[in-house]
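Colleagues,

For the teaching module next term, I've prepared a clean inverse folding example: a structure given as tokens, and then the sequence designed for it. I'd like students to try predicting residues themselves before seeing the answer, so please don't circulate the second half yet.
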């Protein structure tokens, strides 16, 4: 998903990646809303609360260029904190 085009343009990326620890606990860099959405949908732990739902919708909106990428990044960070995936 990270190399896909969105409306004929390259997928949005964040200036600073968000580092999370999924599955095996190794740190992984998430570079934009497309990668974040992929992690949220397919690799996220079972701890899912309101910040998780907000991050999913925010990242999808950022991919469609309907929301600023920075707002989606903030939502992803809140979801990561909620799931205890940040150091």
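(Answer key — instructors only)
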């Amino acid at each position: 998903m990270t190399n896909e085009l969105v409306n004929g343009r390259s997928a949005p990326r964040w200036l600073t990646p968000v580092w999370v620890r999924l599955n095996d606990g190794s740190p992984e860099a998430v570079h934009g809303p497309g990668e974040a959405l992929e992690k949220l949908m397919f690799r996220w732990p079972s701890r899912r609360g309101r910040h998780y739902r907000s991050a999913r919708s925010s990242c999808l909106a950022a991919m469609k260029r309907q929301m600023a990428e920075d707002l989606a990044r903030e939502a992803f960070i809140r979801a990561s904190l909620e799931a205890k995936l940040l150091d």
